[in-house]
Design brief:
two-stranded antiparallel sheet, 11 helices, 2 strands
Length: 319
């Protein structure tokens, strides 16, 4: 089983500290002077802000030690996964992350939020882009081929906290009313040392994920949405626009990915490119990136102020 991890879109993974750089609000460009400048908020973009920085979630992909650091972090996470699986009676062989499997910054890999990315890939939905900081690895559980269906199911629930068909299994319900997966990989990715630390980590991530929907950016999204309406598109926010296109693409793909013909694929990609181009221009017109970043810093500071005692204890426990 080959797995891909994008450190832009999987919140649970950012606690490994393997994320792209976080830009300060004062540095956020509001005009597209260069094709490679990050000028727009992208759902695939790295997080930034005081809570992200405090918890060590920001990481510079362009750093000369980035690959080395990520390989070490991945190995530590795999060792924690293996120990957790052993406690539950399963054998798990830690996977080695190879440096060549890590996507790095390069001329042919524009960052999400840049004009170059939009012009080449739109939102990166049809093209299924791998942004800098993502990586792949192959999971080969010992004896997988000889396992019965029930044994495989039990193994994956212990590992991923999800059944073979993707149904989450866990004792805690999330905001959507579904169980929150609590497999060994989730615990290892959090890197939490105790239950209290794990709870704080989960609460912080929930807070970060809730920002687009909690009302903090409604006024900003309203300005952007009116601009998009002038161009013939009805979306509530940049995040909602990309999510809608992802849903459309998945519907076209079907369960096996073999249901979509070339004409449908081309039409869907062309539509995505047009929407993404309009999104970029409306973000520039509304100064979306700088305003989003400022609002995000205030939003994250609210969590820090509310949980200062817990955060102090968490930092002390981490040494």
């Amino acid at each position: 089983m080959t797995r891909r991890r994008s450190l832009y879109v999987l919140a649970v993974l950012v606690l490994c500290g393997a994320c792209s750089p976080a830009g300060a609000p004062s540095d956020a460009p509001t005009v597209a002077d260069e094709a490679g400048d990050v000028v727009a908020m992208s759902p695939q973009s790295p997080r930034s802000g005081p809570l992200v920085e405090l918890m060590g979630l920001a990481r510079d992909v362009s750093s000369p030690t980035y690959v080395e650091d990520l390989v070490v972090q991945f190995r530590e996470r795999e060792d924690r996964t293996s120990a957790c699986m052993a406690e539950q009676g399963f054998e798990y062989e830690p996977v080695a992350l190879e440096p060549e499997d890590i996507t790095l910054v390069g001329a042919d890999v524009p960052l999400p939020g840049t004009r170059a990315f939009v012009e080449q890939h739109g939102y990166g939905v049809a093209d299924d882009t791998s942004p800098p900081g993502s990586y792949t690895w192959t999971l080969e559980p010992p004896g997988w081929e000889s396992m019965s269906g029930a044994a495989r199911e039990a193994y994956m629930i212990a590992l991923d906290g999800m059944t073979a068909d993707g149904t989450p299994v866990g004792d805690t319900l999330g905001p959507d009313g579904l169980p929150v997966p609590d497999g060994c990989q989730h615990r290892a990715m959090r890197g939490a040392v105790d239950d209290a630390s794990a709870a704080l980590t989960e609460e912080a991530l929930d807070h970060l994920d809730a920002m687009p929907d909690d009302g903090s950016v409604d006024e900003l999204d309203g300005s952007w949405s009116r601009c998009m309406a002038d161009q013939g598109y009805a979306y509530a926010s940049p995040t909602a626009a990309r999510a809608a296109l992802v849903d459309t693409w998945n519907e076209l793909l079907g369960e096996t990915g073999a249901d979509m013909d070339d004409e449908e694929s081309a039409t869907a990609r062309e539509h995505e490119m047009r929407v993404a181009a309009a999104d970029l221009e409306c973000q520039l017109e509304t100064d979306y990136l700088a305003r989003w970043t400022d609002l995000g810093r205030d939003y994250q500071q609210q969590f820090i102020d509310t949980h200062q005692g817990e955060i102090d204890a968490w930092l002390e426990a981490r040494g």
